[in-house]
Amino acid sequence: MRLLVTGGAGFIGANFVHSTVQERPAVAVTVLDVLTYAGSRESLRSVDDQIRLIEGDLVDESLVDTLVAECDAVVHFAAETHVDNALAGPAPFVRSNVVGTFSVLEAVRRHGVRLHHVSTDEVYGDLPLHGDERFTAQTPFNPSSPYSATKASADLLVRAWVRSYGVRATISNCSNNYGPYQHIEKFIPRQITNVLTGRRPKLYGTGANVRDWIHVEDHNSAVWHILEGGVCGSTYLIGADGERDNLSVLQLILALMGRDADDFDHVPDRVGHDLRYAIDASALRAELGWTPKHTDLTEGLTSTIAWYRDNEWWWGPLKEQVEAGYTERGQ
Ligand SMILES: NC(=O)c1ccc[n+]([C@@H]2O[C@H](COP(=O)([O-])OP(=O)(O)OC[C@H]3O[C@@H](n4cnc5c(N)ncnc54)[C@H](O)[C@@H]3O)[C@@H](O)[C@H]2O)c1
User: Fold this and answer.
1) Which tens digit of pLDDT belongs to each residue from 111-129?
2) Is the CB of 43 under 6 A from ligand 1?
3) I need a surface site. Which of 9, 118, 119, 257 has the fewest CB within 10 A?
4) What is the CATH number of the domain that holds 24?
């Protein structure tokens, strides 16, 4: 199988490329990535002689057309992804997430290539903090931020291309991921690298917001299940029953790193901060037999902390600049 992975130099994409190369040697992987600040050649360094990395933009229709024509399937991860950046400047989100997905869709339509589109549970908006309601594939879209609005727009384009043009595509909406190679602007790696560099971790507001954490390897194993067994036109929700509020996650990181439970600073909350996300992944489990492996958050965070401790070469050069950006925004 010749597989095109867009955004394969980003967090989830790079993990997907690593596990694919390791577990499926018969798959020939091409990565298309424009290498924004969030993408890095270094994330693919250990597999660079086993894959092809093309530095290019999703909105370059002729490049995307050429690459799609050469492959059997596309897994589309590439996107602008950081909510704080979307709030500060939404234009790149519309360009990459909406126009970029349109470009991929037109290419797979022309060449009859199978597509899996990777999306987020943030398209559904948020849930009340207390309660047991969870998102399903039937939950209506209700995005809160420019990030989630552009992801919802892309999902709608995919649905329409399936219906109108018979494109062979599936969609997945996953909850919050953690694991190796995640940019240190994101919540978990920011806190870990703050501790590793002698800074105090930072918590938005009171930390009551709830996220449904999943290890990136479990997200990616679900993507493979859907690519191989999913029904075209279907949307699959991916989650591993990992609901935790941000304060508990931060205090777990502090405990695992030998710091006091109150050794952090509160910073002003994000505007429009979604309260709670929770995924009902029972359809994916029942239909495709997928099960997550990393269901113990303490274990998953322990190995993630160890990865950041051992790989300062990967994140160290970024730390000053990322924190300077947060300081400028008062966070
Ligand atoms: N991180 C999460 O918790 C999470 C959860 C659910 C879904 N998702 C989705 O998974 C996908 C990957 O997320 P991530 O966390 O790995 O993101 P990331 O920001 O770490 O990586 C995104 C990658 O896409 C590339 N990219 C961006 N715009 C591009 C363009 N115009 N052309 C080519 N490449 C471009 C970047 O260079 C980067 O390598 C996204 O679609 C995101 O919406 C993420």
Assistant:
1) 999 999 999 999 999 999 9
2) no
3) 257
4) 3.40.50.720
Task: Report in angstroms the alpha-carbon separations of 114 from 29, 78, 162.
Answer: 15, 16, 11
Report the Cα–Cα distance between both ends of the chain, in Å, rounded: 45
Number of compact structural domains in the chain: 1
pLDDT digits (tens, 9 = 90+) for 230-276: 999 999 999 999 999 999 999 999 999 999 999 999 999 888 889 99
d(CA 92, CA 189): 23
Q: What six digits make up the tokens of 31?
A: 């990565």
- How far is CA 79 from each of CA 6, 38, 83, 159, 226, rounded to the nearest angstrom? 9, 10, 12, 18, 20
| Catalytic center residues | 121-122, 147
Q: pLDDT (tens digit, 9 = 90+) per residue, 31-76?
A: 999 999 999 999 999 999 999 999 999 999 999 999 999 999 999 9
Residue 295 falls inside a structural domain? no
Distance in angstroms (rounded) separating the CA atoms of residues 185 and 322: 6
Ligand 1 pocket residue status of 14, Cβ below 6 Å: no
Cα 251 to ligand 1 centroid, rounded to whole Å: 27
User: Is 44 a pocket residue for ligand 1 (Cβ < 6 Å)?
Assistant: no
Domain membership of residue 99 (yes or no) is yes
Does 192 map to a domain? Answer: no
pLDDT at 330: 87
Please check whether residue 165 lies inside any domain of the structure.
Answer: yes
